[in-house]
Amino acid sequence: MKKIILSVFLVSTLFTACRKNNGPAAEYALGVDLQSNFKEDHVQVFIDDQSLFNSLASTSDAFSLASSIGTTNTEGRHTIKVIVNDSITVTQDFEQHGNLYIGVAYDKLTKNIRFNYSPTRFDYE
After folding, report:
1. 10-residue block means of pLDDT along the chain (125 residues)?
2. Closest Cα partner for 69 from 88, 43, 89?
3. What is the DSSP string of 39-101?
4. Measuring CA to CA, which of 17, 21, 57, 87 is 20 to 30 A from 68?
5. In 10 A of CB 60, how many CB atoms?
């Protein structure tokens, strides 16, 4: 009987020691900048299907920036979705392992949306 109790104790200790730590995930800064070529465009930005921005946007000629949105996000794999004028939608997966800043550029002529990723804030002068 002692051997059985000892065996159960050793096996349960082994499983407990090998279990992965599921503590809270680290949070980092996430910035999304609506950058070039927005002119009175209705823009919606979603991170992991959560609305981050839903408004009209116009890029300033002086700064090449229409809007800057700041939030926090957990480490790992995420999705950004941008919708412009309810007709152009682009979705892209990205990995976040620290602070991350995403620039969103729009080309009205080609109806193309591009993403630019940076570990540091974008500089507008």
Report:
1. 47 47 78 94 97 95 89 96 96 97 94 96 85
2. 43
3. SSEEEEEEETTEEEEEEEE--BTTTTBSEEEEEEEESEEEEEEEEETTTEEEEEEEEESS-EE
4. 87
5. 11
Distance CA 25, CA 76 (A): 9
Query: Pairing mode, if any, of strands 27-34 and 67-74?
Result: antiparallel
C-alpha distances in Å from residue 73, one per residue of 38, 48, 79, 101, 120: 26, 10, 11, 11, 15
Is residue 69 classed as helix, strand or coil in its secondary structure?
strand
Say whether 51 sits in a helix, a strand or coil. Answer: strand
Dihedral over Cα of 121, 80, 52, 36: its sign: positive
At 76, list the tokens: 């790992």
What are the tokens at 54?
């839903």
Q: Give strand pairing partners of 90.
A: 82
Domains of the chain: 26-118 (2.60.40.2890)
Which residues pair with residue 72 across a beta bridge?
29
Structure-block tokens of residue 113: 């949306």
Contact 102, 94 (CB under 8 A): yes
Q: What is the rounded distance in angstroms from the CA atom of residue 109 to the CA atom of residue 91?
A: 19
